[in-house]
Amino acid sequence: MLNVDLQKLLANGISRYELVSATAKRARMIVEDAEKNHDIIIDKPVSIAVKELEEGVWKIK
Fold first, then answer.
1. Burial call 16-46: b when 16+ CB within 10 Å, e when fewer
2. Do residues 9 and 54 make contact, with C-beta atoms less than 8 angstroms apart?
3. How crowded is residue 12: how many other Cβ atoms within 10 Å of its Cβ?
4. Is 70 exceeded by the pLDDT of residue 1?
5. What are phi and psi of 15, to 5 degrees?
């Protein structure tokens, strides 16, 4: 289970809807890339997307 600081992720004036929508979109991108490259994903794509957001790998505009 993810323990993410929601207030930190929403600090830039992003709504919860935008956060959920962008995270789901990034998770779909992760799955598509894995299928294209024939990679096996161990972690759940949503978990990977949230970790990337938390670490600053990608940002919501």
1. eeebeebbeebbeebeeeeeeeeeeeeeebb
2. yes
3. 10
4. no
5. -80, 165
In whole angstroms, what is the distance from residue 44 CA to residue 8 CA?
22
- State the residue for tokens 């990034």: 26
In tens, the pLDDT along 3-58 reads: 777 788 887 788 889 999 999 999 999 999 999 999 999 999 999 999 998 888 98
If DSSP states are collapsed to H, E and C, what string results for the chain? CCCCCHHHHCCCCCCHHHHHHHHHHHHHHHHHHHHHHCCCCCCCHHHHHHHHHHHCCCCCC
What is the Cα Rg of the chain in Å? 12
The gap from C-alpha 56 to its chain's centroid, in whole angstroms, comes to 10
